[in-house]
Structure formats: structure tokens, C-alpha cells
Amino acid sequence: MKNLAGIDLNLLVALDALVNERHVGRAAKRIGLSQPAASHALQRLRNIMNDPLLVRTGARMQLTRRAEALRAPLAQLLQQMGSLFVGENFDPQTSTRRFVMMVPDHVVDFFIPALIERIARRAPNVRLDIRPWRGPAALQEDFALEIDIVIACTSEPLAGFRQQRLFRDTEALAVRRAHPLGPRLRRLDAFSKARHIAVVGHGHREDPVDTWLREEGIERRIAILVPGYLQALHVAARTDLVAFVPHRLIETLESPLSLRTVTPPIDPGEYEELMFHPSRSQVDAGSIWLRSQVLHIARTLERRFSAGLAGSRRGTLAPKSLHSA
After folding, report:
1. Does the model's pTM come out above 0.70?
2. Tens of pLDDT along 116-141?
3. Between β-strands 161-176 and 270-278, what pairing exists: parallel, antiparallel or unpaired?
């Protein structure tokens, strides 16, 4: 086997032109060389491959059997080599690509349906695989090889990922519409007497809300502990328990679950959801397209936040105070 380090890979381009044109002059014109340069390339190829490649038969040049056999694999090789440097094209209308996203359960409910609807109009054959959030500890460096986008609220950097701000949110109280306390939960005394649902997700020992409230000298009466915000809202919808969860999620499920949103007696501040994507996909056309769709939905959410919630809430705590992963 010849040492590739000693071979000029530009000769492959010349070889492709020669076997397709079967004429040194036309091959030279095709790849932008002078005819003497193309003749020199042909001679070098003959020496390397120990085959004449092109032989004169009367007034025409014919390919040797070796050269004829090289045409198809050579064209495929050059196409693959080109994709290494140019990158794969991505056409949303025809692509059948599968994208993998890791998204917290509460974000799935109010974010993913809008994203699916947008993608369906622009890329009808693209598939989204949504995986549940498993916490920063699960995101090892090799994880970047199997995921396209992670949406999370975490202050920890993710190795092998780049991050971008998506949208803000805050937290609010959710109770069933006929809850006996209802709007009175805005008062600290009613809030303290009520029975609450604690949400303790993967990697946590207690609800971040309780960690924060304890720092403020307040203890909630916890009646039940659940692993996610969706479970908390479903329990709140069927009992007199109070859920302290992301406002956007309550807003989304308020009508279907017959819930009421109540402003808590202490301002929980704002937090940010971030989008992470692998550094390896920074210039990948398909990944760039997907990120642009996610950012479009996020900008819509942020405009609504600025027009509504921001006017009635003044965040006084750091974004990670209540909701960091």
C-alpha cells in the first residue's frame, strides 16, 4: 500500500476530469489547469498507479480497464471529501432528518407544541425525538454526540456545549378554581396555613422553592412530594393543595385543568431558560435551522412576558434562586 502522505490529493480531481473527459485538453479546461499542467498530472498518475489510464487508439483516447473501473468510486470519494469541508446541505422541505432534544417536562407542555406546528409547516418529514431532562450530572462530554439541543435552566456550564438565552419566566401559585382560599393566598398568613405540593426533581433533595423560602424565614406545610411540575398541577386540580410552579406552565394548563393562577405573597423573581447545542454542530446546516426555529418560538414567548408578566413582577432574586437545575 502506498503512503498517502506522499500523494498530492489534488491529483484525484485531475484523475476525475481525465477519466470523464477522456481528453487532456478538455480535462485541463474543466478543472482550470493549463494543458501542460494536465499532461504533467496524467504522467504523475500513471507513475503512481502503474497504469497508463488513457491510451491513444487512432484519433481518440480510450480508458484502460483500470481507469474505467475507477470512475464510479472516484466520483463518490470526491463527493464525500467535499462534504467534509463544505458541509451537508439541509433542505427543510425534503429532509427526513431526526433531531434529538432534551427538554424539561414543564417546557415540553408550553413550548414543544408550538415548535412542532412550526416545523410541520416548514419541514414536514423531519422528526423530533424529545428526551426528559436528567440533570447536569448526566450530561457527560460524549452526550454531545447524540443530542442536538438541550433546553434547561442551569447555572452549570455543559462540557462540549455552547449556550444561548431563550426566555424568562417566573413562578406562581396554582390552585383549583373552587379552592376555599383562592385569592387570599396572596397574603402570607393564608399561604403559610395552606397545604402545599413539593416538586423534587432528579438530582434534588428538596424543592428549590422551600430552600428559598427557608432563607426568607418561611416554612411551607408540605402535604405531598411529586417528581415533576405536571404531576403537581394535576394534584392541585383535584385537591385543595397548592402548587408553586412555573407561571408559563400554569398559563398553558389553566383552562384544561380548571386552575386558578394566584400571585404568591413573596416575589420569587425571574429565571432564564437556556438553549445548549453541541460545539460540534455549530456550523451544521440542519442544526442551525433547528436552532432558528427554537429561537423564533422563544422570541414570541419573550414578547408576551415583556408585555404582561414583567409589568406586574419586579424580579429581586437571581435567576437561579428558585429554578436552577
Report:
1. no
2. 999 999 999 999 999 887 766 666 65
3. antiparallel
